[in-house]
Design goal:
The chain has 64 residues and is an all-alpha fold. It has one domain. 73% of the residues lie in helices and 0% in strands. The longest helix is centred in the last third of the chain and has 20 residues, at 44-63.
């Protein structure tokens, strides 16, 4: 959580200083990551699938 909050904090302020809401911030981060994947020829969908699997595994360990 701390790492995610730290990464997302750079997106909470626009160039004009207006704060974005959490949903809009997440959309901007994901759009930028999609652009990065396009530029570096990475497969965003495959990475997202692996991230979902990792999340499920980590959530399972936390619950058990």
């Amino acid at each position: 959580m701390r790492r995610a909050n730290g990464a997302l904090s750079t997106y909470t302020l626009s160039g004009e200083g207006w704060r974005r809401g959490p949903s809009e911030t997440l959309q901007h981060v994901l759009a930028d990551l999609l652009h990065w994947c396009d530029d570096t020829q990475r497969d965003f969908d495959a990475a997202l699938a692996r991230a979902r699997a990792r999340h499920a595994e980590e959530a399972g360990r936390a619950a058990g």
